[in-house]
Amino acid sequence: MSRTQASIYVLMGASSYGVVSTITKLAYQHGFATGEITGSQVFFGCLFLWLVALPACAKTKRLSRKSLLSLIMCGMVSGLTGIFYYLSLKTLSASFAIILMFQFTWIGLLLEWMRTRVRPRWNHWLATAIILSGSLLASASQLNGTSLHAKGIFFGLLSALTYALFIYFSNFVATDVNPMIRSASFVTGGLFTNLLIFSPAFLIEGKLFDGLWFWGLLLGLFGSVIPTILFMKGIPHIGSGLASILGSVELPAVIVVAAFFLHEQPTMLQWAGVLLILLGILISEAPNIIGRRSISAKQS
């Protein structure tokens, strides 16, 4: 897989995550609790991924117990992201909650630095600074007249840490395993986390048939299936540091989707922030783009 294709996969996966906050807000408005929302998401996501992974299981060699355990444990850590993020959405606006989770950009760079002992490129640091500036600009209008609950901020920052760990682990844990099986194993770990923290009562109390199935399917698709598969395919080819930067495209997706479905009308400041974020993403890939153009020019 080329670096460009892998980057596109990560961008698409992050954009899929951008739909989740709006769906979650709508599910809250229909009276469902955090445990029910996250539980239904990972339940449907896990079910669908294993159905898709079954053909791969039949064709691949037996997965070692060590690899399976590593994937599930990493998935348990990443499973906390949705829980922390949904808890922050209970007291914060969708736009501000995503800003807090956006701290994963610089956390991801630090984790990659610690693992590889290779200092991130200057353009990655510059891109991160521009992206964080853009995210703050995009959320500035949301701060006026908005109550900032300490509990919501705390959970928002925890979601940033666990999201960065998810990207970090996706880069090197059991990368020799089929991406579909890796994705299903990761989400299985997330399901275990949810069942440990919240009661699985929604499965036996009939909540699924009260409308929860609809939100669970949507969240499972956009919050578990699509991003996990695309991240598992793309991140090992570009590294978790760059993937953390590319993942910032999630915020523009959040703003656009929230404007369309939640009627949160974006301001000029928010659009300016979105442009800065896109500029940061472009800068993160600038050396590779220039390099490819130079090679093409020499060949021609």
Work out the radius of gyration: 19 Å
What is the helical fraction, as a range of percent?
Answer: over 70%
Q: What percentage of the residues does DSSP assign to strands (E)?
A: under 5%
Low-pLDDT sequence parts: 292-300
Q: How much is the average pLDDT?
A: 82
Number of separate strands:
0
Distinct helical segment count: 13
Report the span from N to C terminus: 24 Å
Look at the helices and sheets and give the structural class: mainly alpha
N-to-C SSE string, H for helix and E for strand? HHHHHHHHHHHHH
Account of the protein in words:
This protein is mainly alpha-helical and 300 residues long. The protein is 79% helix and 0% strand. The chain has 13 helices and no strands. The longest helix is centred in the last third of the chain and has 32 residues, at 268-299. The protein is globular and about 45 Å long. The protein starts with a helix and ends with a helix. Residues 292-300 have low confidence and may be disordered.
Topology, pairings included?
Layout: H1 3-17, H2 20-29, H3 34-59, H4 65-89, H5 94-101, H6 104-116, H7 122-143, H8 150-170, H9 179-197, H10 212-238, H11 240-246, H12 250-261, H13 268-299
Helix pairs in contact: 1-10, 1-12, 2-10, 3-4, 3-9, 3-10, 4-8, 4-9, 5-8, 5-12, 6-8, 6-11, 7-13, 8-11, 9-10, 10-11
Brief digest:
With 300 residues, the chain is mainly α. It is 79% helix and 0% strand.
Q: How would you describe this structure in keywords?
A:
300 residues; 13 helices; 0% strand; globular; single chain; mainly alpha
